[in-house]
TrEMBL record:
Residues engaged in binding GTP: 86-93, 133-137, 187-190
Name of the featured protein: Translation initiation factor IF-2
Keywords for this protein: Cytoplasm, GTP-binding, Initiation factor, Nucleotide-binding, Protein biosynthesis
Main location as per UniProt: cytoplasm
The organism's place on the tree of life at top rank: Bacteria
Keyword Secreted assigned: no
C-alpha cells in the first residue's frame, strides 16, 4: 500500500532527510525525499533510527514521544502481575479470596470490594502484588490469542488430595508457551492423609522440577481455606518478582491490556484495564480495542475513585464508546482526532479479518459442496 514520503518520515523522527535516504539506500531501497515508501519499509527505517513504531493505519506509522523506547533511567520498579491457574476445584477461587484478605490496607480503604477481574494487595512489607482474577484458562487463552501478555508469573494450584490433572497440565503448557515462570502452590494440605510429595513426583513428569528436587521452581504447601502458609506464598512471589526485575516507565502516556469488560445498565461500557506502561489519568483520551473515549471515572478494586493509575494497577474505566474485548490493547492518545484515527484503523482491520474468515469458510463450504 501507498504510504509516507521520505521527507515526512524524516520530519516525524526529527531526522535529516538525507540520513533517511541513506538508511534506505543501505536497505537496498532507492528513494528521493518526495517519494513515498510503504509502511513496512518505513517501520524498518524507524527501528533503524532506534525508535519504536506504532502502526496507526495500514499505510501509516506513528513515531511519537509515547512510541519512544524507554531508557534505563526512565524505568522504575513495578509490582508483579500474577495469574492463578490449576485444575477445577483445586482451590483457585479460594486462594484468590484468601490472598485478597491478606491486604494490609484493605480495611483502611472503607470502600466496598468490587469484582473487577483483577485486584492489587499491599503485603506487610509495603510492596504490592496484582492478581488477575478472571476465569483463568479462558481469559488467558483469549489474551494469548490476541498476542497480549499480562502476567509476569503463574501460581499453579494443585490440590494435594487430587494431584496433577488435565487442566494442571494445560496450565503448565500455557505458562511455558508464554515464557512465564511458575510457582507451585500445593493446596489443601489441611486435609487428613494427603501426600504433597506425590504432587512433586507427578509434576516431574511434566518437566516442572521443584526446588526440593533440585529444580528451580518454587513450591509452597498451602491451605487456602485454613489460611496456612499464605505469607510464604507471597514471599515466593516477591522473590520471583525480584529475579524478574520488573520495571516500567510511569512517566509516559499509558498503555496496557483490557482484562474484562461489560455493558453496565447505569454506567454504560465499563472496562477493567491493566496499566502496563505509563500512568493512566482521569480525563485521558484512550483507545481500547476499536473503542475510544475520555476516561470519565477510574475506580480500583476497592471501589475508590482514582485520579492516576500507575503501572501494574488494574482499574475500571468509564467513558468508552463501546465494549472492548478481553486481551485488547489500550493506549492513551494525545487528542480525539488521533483516537478516532486509531479506532477507525482498528475497526477496518477487524472487518478485514472477519471478511477473510468468512471467505475462508465460504471456500470450505464450496469444497464440501463438491
Ligand atoms: P476452583 O475451582 O479451583 O476455583 O476451586 P474452589 O476455590 O472453588 O475450591 C473447590 C473446593 O475446594 C471448595 O469446596 C473449597 O472450599 C475447597 N477448598 C479449597 N481450598 C481448600 C483447602 O485449602 N482445604 C480444603 N480442605 N478445602 C479447600
Ligand atoms: Mg473457581
Amino acid at each position: 500500500p501507498e504510504a509516507i514520503t521520505v521527507q515526512e518520515l524524516a520530519n516525524r523522527m526529527a531526522a535529516r532527510g538525507g540520513e533517511v535516504v541513506k538508511a534506505l539506500f543501505r536497505m537496498g531501497v532507492m528513494a528521493t525525499l518526495t517519494q513515498s515508501i510503504d509502511a513496512d519499509t518505513a517501520e524498518l527505517v524507524v527501528q533503524e533510527f532506534g525508535h519504536r513504531v506504532r502502526r496507526v493505519s495500514e499505510s501509516d506509522v506513528e513515531i511519537g514521544l509515547e512510541g519512544m523506547e524507554d531508557t534505563d533511567t526512565d524505568l522504575q520498579p513495578r509490582p508483579p502481575v500474577v495469574t492463578i491457574m490449576g485444575h477445577v476445584d483445586h482451590g483457585k477461587t479460594s486462594l484468590l479470596d484468601a490472598l485478597r484478605k491478606t491486604d494490609v490496607v484493605a480495611h483502611e480503604a472503607g470502600g466496598i470490594t468490587q469484582h473487577i477481574g483483577a485486584y492489587q494487595i499491599t503485603v506487610p512489607d509495603g510492596s504490592k502484588v496484582t492478581f488477575i482474577d478472571t476465569p483463568g484458562h479462558e481469559a488467558f487463552t483469549a489474551m494469548r490469542a490476541r498476542g497480549a501478555s499480562v502476567t509476569d508469573m503463574v501460581v499453579l494450584v494443585v490440590a494435594a488430595d487430587d494431584g496433577v490433572m488435565p487442566q494442571t497440565i494445560e496450565a503448565i503448557r500455557h505458562a511455558k508457551a508464554a515464557g512465564v515462570p511458575l510457582i507451585v502452590a500445593v493446596n489443601k494440605i489441611d486435609k487428613p492423609g494427603v501426600k504433597p510429595d506425590r504432587v512433586k513426583q507427578e509434576l516431574l513428569q511434566h518437566e516442572v522440577v521443584v526446588e526440593s528436587l533440585g529444580g528451580d521452581t518454587q513450591e509452597i504447601e498451602v491451605s487456602a481455606t485454613q489460611r496456612i502458609n499464605l505469607d510464604k506464598l507471597l514471599e515466593a512471589i516477591s522473590l520471583q518478582a525480584e529475579v524478574l526485575d520488573l520495571k516500567a516507565n510511569p512517566n509516559r502516556a499509558a498503555e496496557g491490556t483490557v482484562i474484562e469488560s461489560k455493558l453496565d445498565r447505569g454506567r454504560g461500557p465499563v472496562a477493567t484495564v491493566l496499566v502496563q506502561k505509563g500512568t493512566l489519568k482521569q480525563g485521558d483520551i484512550v483507545v481500547a480495542g476499536a473503542e475510544w473515549g475520555r476516561v470519565r471515572a477510574m475506580l480500583d478494586d476497592k471501589g475508590r475513585q482514582l485520579k492516576d493509575a500507575p503501572p501494574s494497577l488494574p482499574v475500571e474505566i468509564l467513558g468508552l464508546s463501546g465494549v472492548p474485548s478481553a486481551g485488547d490493547n489500550f493506549i492513551a492518545v494525545e487528542n480525539e482526532a488521533r483516537a478516532r484515527e486509531v479506532s477507525e484503523f482498528r475497526q477496518r482491520r477487524a472487518r478485514e479479518k472477519a471478511t477473510a474468515a468468512l471467505g475462508a469458510r465460504g471456500s470450505l463450504n464450496d469444497m464440501l459442496a463438491r
